[in-house]
From TrEMBL:
This is Retrotransposon Copia-like N-terminal domain-containing protein. Residues 1-11 have a biased composition (Low complexity). It holds the Pfam family Retrotran_gag_2. Residues 1-20 are annotated as: Disordered. Transmembrane segments: none annotated. PANTHER family: PTHR47481, RETROTRANSPOSON GAG DOMAIN-CONTAINING PROTEIN (PTHR47481:SF9). It comes from the Eukaryota.
Length: 253
């Protein structure tokens, strides 16, 4: 993110006039803009909401801007009493600053979305409205969505590669976490061992017999190594079979 030329203070200085705390224009925090190309490389699409949300929320947390999207940093009043005369109203600099920052965040959200998603933001006038819209679309907490994801978690590996199978498992567990149905790591391992396929029965038996728990990344490494072993073994068997067949065909050559 980049900032404007205003003061870089994260908390605005205020003056107290007739018990009113009024931020001073020159002391307001610098406006934060988002460089979506550099800071948000993942474009929001229907299939990658968990990853997109993780990168966006970490960026907002870093700059203390999450209050704009979760409602904990509400918009200040547009009109406040004058510093010189409380009976006279004046424009609130903090309101103007808040609106500017909020619109910069809204622009960041829209600019980091794919073309298929952008139309859904047409009615959003604030970053909070856009954030709520995204979550209502992709973090649906309905029971039917949770059941659908749980069933997806049970799908066997089939013809997919080990890497693809594990990626799909991880993506599904991320989506389950979004609908408040997180999968414990031990449960995740059991799903993988049950769905990886009969050709992996030797290594899965060894993992089941372990006294210590195994994590997702370690399990992936072991399965990739064993998959390479199986492929190497298959290549050796094919070569041996070809040699034996040739020998039987031409025994005296």
């Amino acid at each position: 993110m980049s900032t404007s030329s205003k003061s870089s203070s994260s908390t605005p200085d205020v003056v107290n006039t007739n018990n009113q705390t009024i931020p001073q224009l020159n002391d307001l925090p610098s406006l934060i803009t988002i460089n979506t190309v550099v800071q948000l490389p993942i474009k929001l699409a229907p299939h990658n909401f968990p990853s997109w949300r993780a990168q966006f929320t970490s960026l907002l947390t870093c700059h203390r801007l999450t209050g704009y999207i979760d409602g904990t940093m509400p918009c200040p009043p547009a009109i406040i009493p004058s510093e010189k005369d409380a009976t006279i109203s004046m424009s609130n600099p903090a309101f103007e600053h808040w609106v500017q920052q909020d619109q910069l965040l809204l622009h960041g959200i829209i600019a980091s979305a794919s073309e298929a998603v952008i139309p859904f933001f047409a009615s959003c006038s604030s970053s909070k409205a856009a954030w709520t819209k995204i979550n209502s679309m992709y973090a649906n907490k309905s029971r039917s969505r949770m059941m659908q994801l749980r069933e997806k978690l049970l799908q066997p590996k089939g013809s997919r590669s080990v890497q693809e199978y594990f990626q799909q498992i991880r993506h599904t567990t991320d989506e389950l976490a979004l609908v408040n149905s997180p999968v414990h790591e031990d449960e995740l391992v059991i799903h993988i061992l049950n769905g990886i396929g009969i050709e992996f029965r030797e290594i899965t038996a060894g993992i089941r017999a372990r006294e210590s728990a195994i994590g997702f990344e370690e399990l992936l490494d072991k399965m990739l190594d064993y998959d390479s072993f199986l492929k190497c073994q298959d290549s050796t068997n094919i070569a041996t079979h070809t040699t034996n067949a040739a020998f039987r065909k031409y025994p005296h050559d």
